[in-house]
Model the fold of this input.
Amino acid sequence: MHALSFIDMRAAGESNRKPIDLLLVEDNPGDVRLTREALREGGVPINLSVASDGVEAVEFLHRRGKYQDAPRPELILLDLNLPKKSGREVLSEIKADPALRSIPVVVMTTSTSDQDVDRAYSLNANCYVAKPVQLDEFLAAVHSIEDFWLGRAIRPPLPAEEADSQLE
Done:
């Protein structure tokens, strides 16, 4: 099984709306499944890509190797506690790269420590959400992220070459 998956999360009747490309960087299969289910329930058409570790996330974002055709995400949901490369390192790389830094990054992790929150914001995270333990609260947290970041917030425009390729 590949750790990276492209899933068209388009709701029925939404085929005329351009799907939003979202990258979920999460190593816990249960949290991936719950996030996928919560997004499927929402009204926003989403192409969900999943990276299960920090190295894979960076390879995906830079479109290296098997990810050369990966879409540029319009939003990243990032766990901090990842194998191979921590979420903090991934966030630091994203926000240091002029080609990636405009992508909104929502840190969604189990930690509520002031140190982790402060560090994430100092690395220019756009939002920090503690993962609830209870199922209904977890789903509600994902729905609120979706509602705000995909329904209300105006995300940065795609770079010109990205926008041109989507018109073809």
In short: The first strand starts at residue 6 and ends at 8.
